[in-house]
What does this fold into?
Amino acid sequence: MSYLVKKKNDLDNKLNVNYITSKLKELDEVYLIGRNFGGELRSYNIGNSILICCDEIISLEICKSGKNINIYSKEKDINEACVYVIGVAFSISLIYRGYIPLHCSATCLEGKNIALIADSGVGKSTLLRHALNQGGKLITDDVLPIFVKENEIYGIPSRSIRPKLWEEELERNYIDQSICKEIPSVKGKYWISINPTRRCFSVTKMDALFLLKPYNDTPTNKVVLSRLPPSKVLFELLQNTHGLWAVSKEMYIKLLDTYNVIAKSVPCYLISYYKCPDAKSEIFKRIKSIC
It folds into this structure.
């Protein structure tokens, strides 16, 4: 399989994904970089590549050139392996190409390109669906590769990966579950189809970032929005870079200048709210008031 990663001056912008049925070759030197999801995912530095081990059944080898991913798994596990490829492995490849894969959903709403940054499970996809229902266009559902050009921030839209929703959100949005595909290894969550006319296909200049922070205090409809200083933005960007935990230290340091430019160049706002279905409309009302 080959995927195109669009960036000016990339001489070879293809990402090659190879499926290998044999076991991963024995390695001479392996250095642990980090763990995630309680140790379910482990990252190792193996010279010119990063090795990601997923449980005990799937291994992914990501070349530090960002151009090749090798999948090692049994044939029966290939669908689950592909979920990891379009997740952590793809993000690591982007990092080694110089992009920042921001863990967020993003939409073009009334001509403004905005990103909704949040931890898993907070409701990025649910809010994105609300934006689409309000006439917005899909930029991405889960990860947005961003880069800096002349002190402006640009995002690369997802051209093929579909948005996701939990089963209860399918019901709230009157979407027929039978026409949606359940995501392997994520019970109760589904990929949903979207009309191509509702997608953004071109590289987009980002106008604002919004950090979602729901709270669990007394229920209220109040939504509080405040602009973050660059130092706080920098911290949140590092915390919300998809796959950053898995890369080698030298790459992490190499990207710091890019992070600083992003933190100073694009406005970032904190949105605090009580998480409930009624909050969506008020959140976007506040977003529209400043965009």
